[in-house]
Design brief:
The protein is of the alpha/beta class. It is built from 12 helices and 19 strands. Strands 1, 10, 11, 12, 13, 14, 15, 16 and 17 form a 9-stranded mixed beta sheet that branches. The two termini are 45 Å apart. The C terminus is likely disordered.
């Protein structure tokens, strides 16, 4: 038997997964006809407030930008606009959606690694902050600004010294060249940014301190240089520490479909996550410094920008699908293979598929058999592909599922919900609804028809 790996949940999520709240989930499954996502906008508001509180507690002038690429739903961008957050966009489509949601152009940061001239032109016109990734991109920004008679707002993205083969950023020589070109009258060099892979707080603090020092140098050249973006990379804690430890200690190839092995797993447990990770970053002492990063930023008069996506979406969503079929995984196997009305693109992100155990939401009127106990199952999708597995790992359920039951995958709003979604074989794409709990009942709206939920005529706080 595999080790259980349950996901953290919130009281709001549990109230929806259990009766009487679960009746809404089955109603939605019947009405929408396929897999679907449920979003919790108020949790997004709380996560954003926690990031802002971390800045305030450290006495740092900071700005939170929501990384829209983490989820395509409109509700979160609308909540960002209401809360006065900035939004990090990576394409013209995302920029257009952010503007339509009420986010001002001056509250956007443009971070995509391959920006075409259309995206750059609209960004310049709206006064958005453009994270310039290469010298030729800077030249195109300058040419567009001259053509439009505008001043482009730019950050110079630095190549991380510890990741010299990264696709993102300018090396030292290119940075020096870029600073010279930023003395043009058509550009306002606001500061520096960087993109780091992984969640190492010390590495992020070191590069942030280096960026602050570069701001001081840029000012000697007559440039504004008063902002540093440390990007995203704030971990999410999906599962408990003991469960994650037991998973690593007990996992064997036979716990995966056809004994599939992997070189590693996404870090589903993080002891320091979300806004706490920002607080730890601000409190850390960068290499070759004697003061904390917060002290360095304050003394330099720099505004620190963060661009969390996954961390702002922590506990903001569920993905659900109906059980279509339950069978043996093979003629000689005692394992169960459960087919769901979804495919891997509706929920999966990493190569190993979903690791965390889903939550069984029994169909209305179902009664558990007293002889049925916990069971390990593989979850398969509805495509005619051997590789269409929702879980390659044998996951835990409290009893064997039945046709008509729902399986809920917790905490999927950050990337896992729709990063790989597609319309293969004309299967229905997962629909998305936003829900709010009003006293003893639930209200829901399709996300594409979402408008901010109000109470007593005002926006939800």
């Amino acid at each position: 038997m595999t080790t259980a790996l349950p996901s953290h949940t919130t009281e709001e999520v549990r109230a929806l997964l259990e009766p009487p709240g679960s009746s809404l989930l089955h109603e939605l499954g019947h009405g929408l006809g396929g897999p679907y996502h449920v979003l919790f906008p108020r949790r997004f508001d709380a996560n954003a407030a926690a990031f802002r509180a971390a800045f305030a507690s450290a006495g740092v002038d900071g700005r939170v930008y929501y990384a829209k690429k983490a989820n395509k739903a409109s509700v979160f961008v609308e909540r960002a606009a209401v809360a006065g957050l900035g939004v990090d966009v990576a394409s013209h489509g995302e920029l257009r959606e952010a503007l339509a949601a009420g986010v001002r152009g001056t509250d956007l940061v443009i971070t995509g690694p391959a920006k075409d001239d259309h995206l750059l032109r609209v960004s310049v016109l709206h006064g958005a902050l453009i994270a310039v990734d290469a010298l030729d991109e800077l030249d195109r920004v300058l040419a567009l600004a001259r053509e439009l008679g505008r001043t482009a707002q730019v950050l110079l993205r630095l190549l991380p010294p510890g990741q010299p083969h990264s696709r993102f950023g300018l090396d030292d020589t290119e940075t020096a060249t870029a600073l010279g070109r930023c003395r043009s009258e058509h550009v306002d060099m606001a500061g520096f940014s960087f993109h780091l892979s992984g969640y190492d707080i010390q590495e992020r603090a070191d590069l942030a301190a280096r960026s602050v020092r570069l701001c001081a140098h840029a000012r000697t050249l007559g440039l504004r240089a008063d902002r540093v973006s440390v990007g995203g990379g704030f971990a999410v804690d999906y599962v408990g520490a003991d469960d994650w430890r037991r998973f690593h200690e007990s996992t064997r190839p036979e716990h995966f479909h056809r004994h599939k092995t992997f070189s590693g797993y996404y870090p589903y447990h993080s002891p320091v996550a979300g806004a706490d990770a920002l607080a730890a970053l601000l409190a850390s002492t960068p290499a070759d410094e004697t003061s904390s990063l917060a002290d360095l930023v304050r003394q330099a008069g720099v505004t620190l920008l963060v661009e969390p996506g996954r961390a702002l979406l922590d506990q903001c969503g569920l993905t659900l699908a109906r059980v279509l079929d339950v069978r043996r995984a093979g003629a000689d196997s005692g394992d169960l293979l459960v087919r769901l009305g979804m495919n891997a693109g509706d929920v999966s992100l990493e190569e190993h598929g979903v690791l965390v155990d889903p939550v069984l939401v029994p169909r209305p009127g179902a009664h558990a058999d007293a002889d049925e106990g916990p069971v390990g199952v593989y979850l398969a999708g509805n495509l005619c592909l051997e590789a269409d597995l929702i879980t390659r790992r044998k996951v835990h359920l409290p009893r064997p599922p039945s046709v008509g039951d729902l399986l809920a995958f917790a905490n999927t709003a950050g990337y896992a919900m729709d990063f790989h979604a597609h319309r293969a074989q004309r299967q229905p794409l997962a629909r998305t609804v936003a829900v709010t709990r009003e006293r003893d009942s639930w209200r829901w709206r399709l996300d594409e028809e979402y408008w901010p939920i109000t109470e007593a005529g005002g926006p939800v706080s």
